[in-house]
Amino acid sequence: MANIEEYGGGQHTPDVLVVTTNDVPGHRVERVIGEVFGLTVRSRNIGTQLGAGLKSLAGGELRGLTKTLVQSRNEAMDRLIEQARSRGGNAVLAMRFDVSEAGNGAEICAYGTAAVITPVTGGS
Length: 124
Fold this sequence. Notes:
Elements: H1 4-7, E1 17-18, E2 27-43, H2 46-58, H3 63-86, E3 91-102, E4 105-119
Parallel strand pairs: 1-3
Antiparallel strand pairs: 2-4, 3-4
Pfam families: YbjQ_1
Family: Belongs to the UPF0145 family.
Protein name: UPF0145 protein ACEZDE_03535
């Protein structure tokens, strides 16, 4: 059985919160910094492509391609977070992924809105 970490993503940076929502419950948006993105372009590995071609004849998951896509998404996310951090943000709101063909590979872009958020304290 494969290690789930090889096939999963997720955030591991506590100083920059990334969410797919427009706001964060219990927090106030103090300042919107603007659009940020992280981009990576990956070429196809000929061995993986051949294996995927053979696997597609029998059906089932293309694990080599899945692993490559997960690694690419994580790399795009790391770049997104670094851009938000370097511009003074501690959050990225409305984060999305976009994947498209780029020649002999795939372009993976993570994008969203960098912001400074603070916890709402006290009262109602």
